[in-house]
Amino acid sequence: MTSLATNLATSEALPRRQSRVWRKFRSNKAALLGGIIVAFFVIVALLAPLLPVPGPAVTDWGAVRQGPSAAHPFGTDEIGRDVLSRMIWGARASLMAGVVSVGIAVLVGVPLGVLSGYLRGWTDAAISRVTEALLAAPFLILAIALAAFLGPSLTNAMIAIGISAVPIFIRLARGQTMSVMTEDYVESARAVGLTHWALITRYIVPNIFPPILVQGTLTIATAIIAEASLSFLGLGQQPPAPSWGSMLNVAKNFLEQAPWMALYPGAAIFLVVLGFNLLGDGLRDALDPRDH
Amino acid sequence: MALKKNLALALAFGLAATAVQAQDLRIGLQDDADVLDPDQARTFVGRIVFESLCDKLVDITPDLEIIPQLATGWEFSEDGLTLTMTLRDDVVFHDGTPFNAEAAVYNLDRSRNLPESRRASEVSSISGVEVVDATTIRITLAAPDATLLAQLSDRAGMMISPAAAETMGLDFGLTPVCSGPYSFVERIQQDRIVLERFEGHWDAANYHFDTVTFLPIPDTTVRLANLRAGDLDMLERLAATDLTSASADASLETAQATSLGYQAMTINVGNGERSGGPLGQDARVRQALSLSIDRSVIAQVVFEGAVAPGNQPWPPTSPWYNADFPIQERDVEAARALLAEAGYPDGVDITVQVANNPVQQQVMQVIQAMAGEAGIRISLEAKEFATLLSDQTAGAYEASQVGWSGRVDPDGNLHQFVTTDGGINDAGYSNAEVDAFLNGARVSNDIDARRAAYNGASAILMEDLPLVYLYHPVWIWAMETGIDGFVPYPDGMIRLAGLTLTE
Amino acid sequence: MLAFLGRRLLIAIPTIILISIFVFTLQKLLPGDPVLVLAGEERDPAVLEYLREQYRLNDPIIVQYFTWIGNALTGDLGISLRTQEPVLALIGQKLPVTIQLAVMALIIAIAIGVPAGVLSAYKKGTWIDWVANVVALSGLSVPNFWLGIMLILLISVKLGWLPASGYRPFADDPLDSIRVMLMPAFVLGTGLAATLMRHTRSAMLSVLKSDYIRTARAKGLAEHVVLIKHALRNALVPIVTVTTLLFGELLAGAVLTEQIFNIPGFGKLVVDAVFNRDYAVVQGIVLCTGIAFIFMNILADAAYRVLNPRMRDE
């Protein structure tokens, strides 16, 4: 009976909460701007095969490192490929890198964090020590070592970045779980004899979802930069497929002769990362329960 | 009186010190050198540092003639089994130890016998070294060795102080003591190596800088930026694509020399399972691959013409180049025909591994596009250099894009790669005739006989193609205007004799 | 307090052991043979085998681990395979470089981040807040290496104001040393400034709402006195904590920054060591940074407890 009541209460509360969050979010111009930027790049990436641009690997020996023109609005690269086309296809790689690596981090980190915060005791101690050890190895060094171990490729870069980001999500999920567990209504639900599974799915997961969403959005931004950094060291997307980071890696050798090769991918990384950061920030504000 | 004299002396010194400001030459290198012990060292940039730090028994001219350095003369016996060398008598090491026959013998023995010696294989033909008199040594050989003098013109012929080597042992490389024009001052890993002029050098008058500082700056763009900003006086390995803008810059000068080395694709023809594909098993597929490549387009697109297209282990300008096999024109139709003849009318799929650095990847992407038009679909497998190397040795590759820095003697560019027991025969190639030709070329001191042997070998290799040669890099040095007397050498070294800088 | 420190130090031990096992296995999993990499173009099998024996690379991995950790306990971290210098000496040589970079970057980050955060909180909801936020986020969104290369091109090559790269020991010439490090420190500092700005902003926001600020204002104190003396001082607690925790981020950032500006510090050492499979160096560095990181954490917690009495009850 009690469980039914609480169930009803939460399911009724949800739409109201959602609409309040949406209102708050909408009124935040910065967050809206972030959302628009992200949506733009996502759409471009999805539509890549349909857009009227040459293939990203089509070479033209007669047009090597040529500046922007009608035929190539963003110019051509070091072996005569269209930079605009590579930017569009590169958006796929860069966005994928961000989303997939964060997905990995969430899927690995959140269950471990919940387990750690829920069970406490030895499980918690063990998971916490491993998390600390992972955190203590600087993120990029870890990613470099992992990418080197797995071999340079976009997929492996995503795995490496994902694994390096796991500790943040373990910590976050653990902290949230522990604070939810001390709430009175959880205490009473536990006293009523709710199963572990029910407790976790009904109380803990909905409560840790907002901060994970915020952290996830922000981490996507970091992950996109990390992929670019790994590409910069030669450990990211491999030729001839483009990613913004690997385009920059090559472009740095032609800064004087062909500045457009560095300008556009650099600007795109900046914009999309800024978009995710603004979006994440807006979400944080909108979802912050202290602020209403 | 005495006081007055001292005062005058002091004044004179003071004046001299202010009049002639200590001059430092700062050279930007592409990598950080490894151990500074000639017997243990491995890196190319290490050799550049040694060039100023250590004297060698003999040196080379830009045309690869062997000339005296610490050895004033040498003579092979009639049977080619004894080499007698006479040595300079006015040489001391940086620690004051005199250089003499005894020191030379010590050094050659160290190169041969030190367990850590990377030089052992270079001087493996030597069976004994003995002192004849204070300035003469006699080297006995197990078999005639045409490459020996060339080896002695490099690290194997570098002389280090026996006294220092004895006290320092394996740590010699931390504070090396040689007899070169500059002596070791300090080294900070990945930051700098500082040398200072050695007044006691036998040719000191020819070296004009008080100190030389080597600064490793791996990024070519940053290296050039440092030169332009005046933080370097000179750099090695300017990017070919920066040559045009550097030449146009009035404050910079450039110098070039075609290197002794090459870049190629090594094909796995017999090194484990991965040699089982069409590329490894059928020479016609390899010929088709080679025919599908337009080497001059690679040179133009990737290097703006600043490399020498090539199809043999030595450049077309080398006296060892086999003129019967000039670089073929690209011929897509012929390549397709060869594929069809080999039983692949629909083309073949191959995987080529390449180091994950932008320039080599550019080269392979151009080749990928070209070969694709002939029906050879290449997928590129980028690997970090350490992985590339171990996979290549282990045969875990189908084809591998790698280069070789080159050696003075032609033997060093070919023998170890394609002879059956060759130390770097990663292709797993084995052909008794080629073995016979190349082993023969090694033991003969007759130029014509050697040339005939190399021509014989290359006739077979051009057919079998265990290595598909692509181009020969060009060493490009850039320096500030005001540096005079720089002589480009095809070995890529920087020799400071006669070099001056007027600011 | 002592009990707290004791407990934390005790907990640190298994973490450090975990780090050591972790870095060791990761190393051994890396493809590529260190001896082969070292050999480069000179691959004489006899010498390679001799070196493998010499560096005990043929031992079973467990034996290798205990040899290493045993030596490490006596302060011997082995020697670099590449240059034969002792790893401990290398770390001693590189540490001051990275610390200088980190300190300068932190100073820049604080100089930008804290005032921006204070201003942004004070003018919450206005366009100033909005601009400060977007600018801070921009700092976080520019890839370090891109900013670095652009700055080299602009400031060193085009304008010739600062050297393009390199390092000058502080002891040699303090002023020149700072000048050389200015650009890299700025690049590294911008990202951190954003983080600091945001933490300052939220700390200031909660302090500004509190009763004693209202009291201070009611007393008729000048606004800047309220803001700086009362509000910022109280907001400093979380800011200081965050700053200590930025250590890890600083180190990771230093890895790339040192690569771009060719600074011979920790980061460059470790990246080159990974690529060269210079095992002893990578292990030594990760172990040292790991331990440093853990102690920074303990220090941050301790500082937090000292500064914030409420925490003590927990």
Automatic annotation (TrEMBL), chain A:
<feature type="transmembrane region" description="Helical">
    <location>
        <begin position="156"/>
        <end position="173"/>
    </location>
</feature>
<feature type="transmembrane region" description="Helical">
    <location>
        <begin position="257"/>
        <end position="280"/>
    </location>
</feature>
<dbReference type="InterPro" id="IPR025966">
    <property type="entry name" value="OppC_N"/>
</dbReference>
<dbReference type="InterPro" id="IPR035906">
    <property type="entry name" value="MetI-like_sf"/>
</dbReference>
<dbReference type="Pfam" id="PF00528">
    <property type="entry name" value="BPD_transp_1"/>
</dbReference>
<feature type="transmembrane region" description="Helical">
    <location>
        <begin position="130"/>
        <end position="150"/>
    </location>
</feature>
<feature type="transmembrane region" description="Helical">
    <location>
        <begin position="95"/>
        <end position="118"/>
    </location>
</feature>
<dbReference type="InterPro" id="IPR050366">
    <property type="entry name" value="BP-dependent_transpt_permease"/>
</dbReference>
<keyword id="KW-1003">Cell membrane</keyword>
<comment type="similarity">
    <text>Belongs to the binding-protein-dependent transport system permease family.</text>
</comment>
<dbReference type="GO" id="GO:0005886">
    <property type="term" value="C:plasma membrane"/>
</dbReference>
<dbReference type="InterPro" id="IPR000515">
    <property type="entry name" value="MetI-like"/>
</dbReference>
<dbReference type="GO" id="GO:0055085">
    <property type="term" value="P:transmembrane transport"/>
</dbReference>
<keyword id="KW-0812">Transmembrane</keyword>
<keyword id="KW-0813">Transport</keyword>
Automatic annotation (TrEMBL), chain B:
<comment type="similarity">
    <text>Belongs to the bacterial solute-binding protein 5 family.</text>
</comment>
<dbReference type="GO" id="GO:0043190">
    <property type="term" value="C:ATP-binding cassette (ABC) transporter complex"/>
</dbReference>
<dbReference type="Pfam" id="PF00496">
    <property type="entry name" value="SBP_bac_5"/>
</dbReference>
<protein>
    <submittedName>
        <fullName>Peptide/nickel transport system substrate-binding protein</fullName>
    </submittedName>
</protein>
<dbReference type="GO" id="GO:1904680">
    <property type="term" value="F:peptide transmembrane transporter activity"/>
</dbReference>
<dbReference type="GO" id="GO:0015833">
    <property type="term" value="P:peptide transport"/>
</dbReference>
<feature type="signal peptide">
    <location>
        <begin position="1"/>
        <end position="22"/>
    </location>
</feature>
<keyword id="KW-0732">Signal</keyword>
<dbReference type="InterPro" id="IPR000914">
    <property type="entry name" value="SBP_5_dom"/>
</dbReference>
<feature type="domain" description="Solute-binding protein family 5">
    <location>
        <begin position="65"/>
        <end position="422"/>
    </location>
</feature>
<dbReference type="GO" id="GO:0030288">
    <property type="term" value="C:outer membrane-bounded periplasmic space"/>
</dbReference>
<dbReference type="InterPro" id="IPR030678">
    <property type="entry name" value="Peptide/Ni-bd"/>
</dbReference>
<dbReference type="InterPro" id="IPR039424">
    <property type="entry name" value="SBP_5"/>
</dbReference>
TrEMBL record, chain C:
<feature type="transmembrane region" description="Helical">
    <location>
        <begin position="177"/>
        <end position="196"/>
    </location>
</feature>
<keyword id="KW-0472">Membrane</keyword>
<feature type="transmembrane region" description="Helical">
    <location>
        <begin position="99"/>
        <end position="122"/>
    </location>
</feature>
<dbReference type="Pfam" id="PF19300">
    <property type="entry name" value="BPD_transp_1_N"/>
</dbReference>
<dbReference type="InterPro" id="IPR035906">
    <property type="entry name" value="MetI-like_sf"/>
</dbReference>
<keyword id="KW-0812">Transmembrane</keyword>
<dbReference type="GO" id="GO:0071916">
    <property type="term" value="F:dipeptide transmembrane transporter activity"/>
</dbReference>
<feature type="transmembrane region" description="Helical">
    <location>
        <begin position="236"/>
        <end position="261"/>
    </location>
</feature>
<dbReference type="Pfam" id="PF00528">
    <property type="entry name" value="BPD_transp_1"/>
</dbReference>
<feature type="transmembrane region" description="Helical">
    <location>
        <begin position="134"/>
        <end position="157"/>
    </location>
</feature>
<dbReference type="InterPro" id="IPR000515">
    <property type="entry name" value="MetI-like"/>
</dbReference>
<dbReference type="GO" id="GO:0005886">
    <property type="term" value="C:plasma membrane"/>
</dbReference>
<keyword id="KW-1133">Transmembrane helix</keyword>
<dbReference type="InterPro" id="IPR045621">
    <property type="entry name" value="BPD_transp_1_N"/>
</dbReference>
<keyword id="KW-1003">Cell membrane</keyword>
